[in-house]
Amino acid sequence: MALGAAVSAGAMGAVLALTGLDSPLRAPFTLFFLLMAPAGAFAVALGRMDPLARAVVAGAGALAVDLLVSQAMLALHLWSVRGGVLAVAAFSGVLLLGCAVRRRAGRARARGTD
What we know:
With 114 residues, the chain is mainly α. 82% of the residues lie in helices and 0% in strands. The chain contains four helices and no strands. The chain has helices spanning 2-19, 26-45, 51-75, 81-111. Helix 2 (26-45) packs across helix 3 (51-75), helix 2 runs parallel beside helix 4 and helix 3 packs across helix 4 (81-111). Keywords: Membrane, Transmembrane, Transmembrane helix. The chain crosses the membrane at residues 27-45, 52-73, 79-101.
């Protein structure tokens, strides 16, 4: 139940930021998305780690991704809220897709079929 609420809050933050709707909840939900999307992707990638260590590393990785995205956008004079949200979402999606492909390949190798 808490996971569903977290996913919906993050999705709402992304939608509010991308559409530009004025709402008092736009800033906190967008910040939640910007922190939790890469943290969730890192947590999936670090699957076999101790849960507390995984949470700490995923949180630090999420902050690093957010800082690197914002620094790169500022250095290239391309800063925008929508662009930052899209860049973080794209990074998180690519990381999750890579994990899914790696797991699927591992299962196929374990069954002996390629």
